[in-house]
Amino acid sequence: MAENLKGCSVCCKSSWSQLQDLCRLERLQCRALGITRRNLGDFEVEYLCDYKRVRDEEFYLVKWRGYPEAANTWEPRKNLRCQGLLKQLHQDLARAPGGPVRPGPRGLPARAASYLVQKAEQRRALRRWEQLLNSTRSHRGRITVENEVDLHGPPRDFVYINEYKVGAGVNLTPVAVGCECHDCLAEAAGGCCPGASHNKFAYNEAGQVRIRAGLPIYECNSRCRCGTDCPNRVVQKGIRYNLCIFRTGNGRGWGVRTLERIRKNSFVMEYVGEIITSEEAERRGQVYDRQGATYLFDLDYVEDVYTVDAAHYGNISHFVNHSCDPNLQVYNVFIENLDERLPRIALFATRPIRAGEELTFDYNMHVDPVDAESTRMDSNFGLAVGGSPRARGRIECKCGAAACRKYLF
Ligand SMILES: [Zn+2]
Ligand SMILES: [Zn+2]
Ligand SMILES: [Zn+2]
Ligand SMILES: [Zn+2]
């Protein structure tokens, strides 16, 4: 029996740092955990929860990692080496509700001290959420989360997904053929995959879109002869930029900013969510209207049969705000599924975007007809709010663009 168990292992339910804390609590040295006689007495500051000045000396109330709050101690500044946490405390105090606070000899007013603890808890919750998002994403671009504005934590009832979640009553039509090109860009046999439906090749050699908005993108698929480095595979490779979900300071909730420079016409992200029928969208729209949220995106490239609902299932695009002067533009993309009623929605940069800039798209975008024969391009790629337009109240726009239309819908 024991022999059969050789090489078996069971995961430990405690994390590395929890085990180290246990050692310190029990005054146990453990070489495997790196707890030696020299560092047995070291303690790690989890956060600072109060602050006082006695004569000319500053003291901070420390919550120690792995210890209950009852074990908090006042420490003089010279004992603390946590520069980042000290800076954070002073930033938090400057933003605390009720204005900047001055400490007395007994510490901060209760309201300010409780704000510090809430900020610490919020940061912990946001770090956990950030880890969850990054362990769920299948794309290269990392996601960071930041709220230096208020006490909002991670959104409730939101599940990160990487591709469309197909709802009840929706069937995809898998692609049956691929192209036979030797080089999809330079020697496209029969116009490559876009050519099969009399459309243009969408990308240049750098993967930047070169056809105008309103025209569809047909990418190479699993049945094509070309490999993953084919220039006609862009959207299918997913998000490649590191992006940050941040809390906006002017009442627009969460937003998304890029942490890297993005070149004009580059693919940035897909708008994914649950695909539902338009009837279902109508029903949900009435509920969402009351909550004032806008996550329904009508797929009306040919006919208005399906809608993408990103309210509860979505990717980082769920957090991208509207702007009347946006830096992202929507394209309809077909890859493994050729049903024209079910395009994938891809967002491309309309201009060069600097690192640190917020990403936005126009929730109510209209794409002009490309030419007389293709009247079907005369569609509204708008993010529908659902329900009848007359029944809705008008939503004020806070995008701040010089050309702001003042109302979202
Ligand atoms: Zn090809
Ligand atoms: Zn192909
Ligand atoms: Zn190809
Ligand atoms: Zn606006």
Automatic annotation (TrEMBL):
Name used for this protein in its record: Histone-lysine N-methyltransferase
Organism: Strigops habroptila (Kakapo)
Domain Chromo as annotated: residue spans: 43-91
Residues in Pre-SET domain copies: 177-238
EC number: 2.1.1.355
Residues the record lists as binding Zn(2+) 4: 324, 397, 399, 404
Pfam families named in the record: Chromo (PF00385), Pre-SET (PF05033), SET (PF00856)
UniProt KW Cell cycle keyword: yes
UniProt-listed InterPro entries: Chromo-like_dom_sf, Chromo/chromo_shadow_dom, Chromo_domain, Chromodomain_CS, H3-K9_MeTrfase_SUV39H1/2-like, H3K9_Histone-Lys_N-MTase, Post-SET_dom, Pre-SET_dom
Binding site for Zn(2+) 2: 179, 193, 220, 224
Alphabetized UniProt keyword annotations: Cell cycle, Centromere, Chromatin regulator, Chromosome, Differentiation, Metal-binding, Methyltransferase, Nucleus, Repressor, S-adenosyl-L-methionine, Transcription, Transcription regulation, Transferase, Zinc
Gene that produces this protein: SUV39H1
Signal sequence interval, chain numbering: none
